[in-house]
Amino acid sequence: MLVAIDTETTGLNPFVHDILVAAFVPFDESIEPLQVFVESRDLTWSETAYKYFQYYKEDWEAHKKPANEACANIERWIAHNFQEPITLVGHNVGFDMGFLRALAYEGARDQIEGISHRSVDTHSLLYGLYAVDWIPEHALTSSGAFEYFGIPVDGIATKELYERILLQL
Q1: How confident is the model over 66-78, as a mean pLDDT?
Q2: How many domains are there within the chain?
Q3: pTM over 0.85
């Protein structure tokens, strides 16, 4: 089962920075998405991360959980909704998966149960389309791709981007 992932973090390095929010949007629309807010131990936020944080600061402060509880919430959601491990779809999904692995470690786990080690990266797919001159270079970034395909930036943007890329193939 494919599930779009989007994370917000305190910076770019999962060894130094923390995941703050993880949003999971199933491609099966009968399954409710999940958004998990995670407490941060990181005091070295990047300027960009702090700027984006202001958009969801109130929700984060009201709903943040320690890493072990955040992992447990994700694992319960997966176990309740899926029969087999989920495959994550994301723009530069290696970034998201790196932070999920760091979250698992902080939550006293080797991994978050139910998440496959396999993934689908929309940036790689876009680069293939760019390489054969089907899309312009500015569409390689997530914001450029959302603009190029006319996708509003919201919780389901990555899912919609993946579906639009498939229509190009």
Answers
A1: 98
A2: 1
A3: yes
